[in-house]
Amino acid sequence: MNVVVIGLGLIGGSIARDLAALGHRVKGADADPSTLGAAQADGVIALDLAPPPAQGEADSGPAGEPPGERRSGGRFAGAEVVILAVPVDRAPELLRQHASELAAVPLVMDTGSTKGEVVRTAREVGLGHNFVGAHPLAGDHRSGWTAGRRGLFAGERVYLCPSDPGSSSAPLALAFWDMLGAHPEMIDTDRHDAVLAWTSHLPQLTATALALTLAERGHGPGSLGRGGRDMTRLAGSDAAMWTGIARANAGELGRAMRALQARLDALRAALETDDGETLLAIFEAAREWYSSETPTVD
Amino acid sequence: MNVVVIGLGLIGGSIARDLAALGHRVKGADADPSTLGAAQADGVIALDLAPPPAQGEADSGPAGEPPGERRSGGRFAGAEVVILAVPVDRAPELLRQHASELAAVPLVMDTGSTKGEVVRTAREVGLGHNFVGAHPLAGDHRSGWTAGRRGLFAGERVYLCPSDPGSSSAPLALAFWDMLGAHPEMIDTDRHDAVLAWTSHLPQLTATALALTLAERGHGPGSLGRGGRDMTRLAGSDAAMWTGIARANAGELGRAMRALQARLDALRAALETDDGETLLAIFEAAREWYSSETPTVD
Which one, of B206, B210, B189, lies nearest residue B198 by Cα? Predict the structure, then answer.
């Protein structure tokens, strides 16, 4: 299989490694030349997205692409899958920029943590038939090519939001992630963003706020035990990436933050009134939740 | 060496395993007969704290202990170290109950997460000369004998709060934790509790509040990715133990919670006004903290 991976960070780099290990041909692009160099050393074929292809006809198409390249799939010619493993605020832009060339590819996916805008954009630019928003729950606080590894997705959930659930791209996407050992799961786009606000974006912002609380008080990461280290690991996440995610999902994330703050208020009230019974009930309810086997996406 | 460990949970059980592996003689006590049975199967000699020793003189001492037993160290006779690895609200009670017998032991320690009350109690009951409050930063969300393991303390910090920093018990405590591969560190008792409110107790309460926020919304642990799992693991901690810790350190912990809530307010304000610049600055500051090598206890 021929696959193009745009963005060779933790997610894109891990996809590239898995595919290469399975014997597939992987072309990769990255804005950072040193990242691309490292990926090339590991067997990824460099793909330059920046300049238009050298050959082609004199009259350019509407997006500045030579029409011949556009018809044949251009720089994505022969690719069966193109993956945009870039920050959520960059993926829609890439879809617009390369829409005509991407139209001929059987499956186009992104990997971002919010799906509403990118799926809407795909439909707008004529990629409703082949775009599937994908979100592997495999991110953590690390980033960059060196953070990637083989097997990152093994056993992990991948949410899939097809632009057109009836198109042939949806089963292709399921098969693709199955191949990487992941557990792909179709989900409605809006529902995805609403769920992730609580299960992923809220934990990230909580870790960020906790880290800054400790920083302000003068306590460094070295002062923490195991629990405190767990609770602040996400503070090391990529700042630009998370700014994009938070802004893209601000509405639901704001509601989730209010709910957390209400819980913190209740805990602090019990603490300040030395209400041991309520404190015990709160700790017990949290422990019960932790031990529960609640369905994944209620 | 002869060591008595009272409370054979995660901490006490791990101490017992390490000591036994080093060839020391470990007597253990636990309120739960099944825990004690499991520990005995692993080589711990059962010590019954409940009934007074069978032999002894007719006239009891002030604490109901036969004076003969009291003079010779009673049920702790021959012990070089006695460790109370029990919840923070139980340790002072044990010190009061066994004060006369404990007075003859060279080193008495607890292992709780707050130190103020237990160190004050030790001085009050005449154990100022041999009591050292110890707090190994090795706890996590698990509990009970089965959660314990050899090497739990290797490389981990252990805070030590001697009742009398000039007594011979302080260097004995340092040597004891050194022997288990830990990094013991003397710290003022009040300073310990103030620091831990921020670095340990605040992260615990944050995890608890986050877990309940997700529970209320209907999202189970299975809906989380790696980051969310890290952020809620502490919700599985022992409820009674943490009720005791929170109440014992309520003042400083309340201040720490207020500080966290102020940070959450600032984050939410930036989110709700779509202030990308401030959001980016917040995520960057948290990442900078995460990558910093700030001294451990400022």
Answer: B206
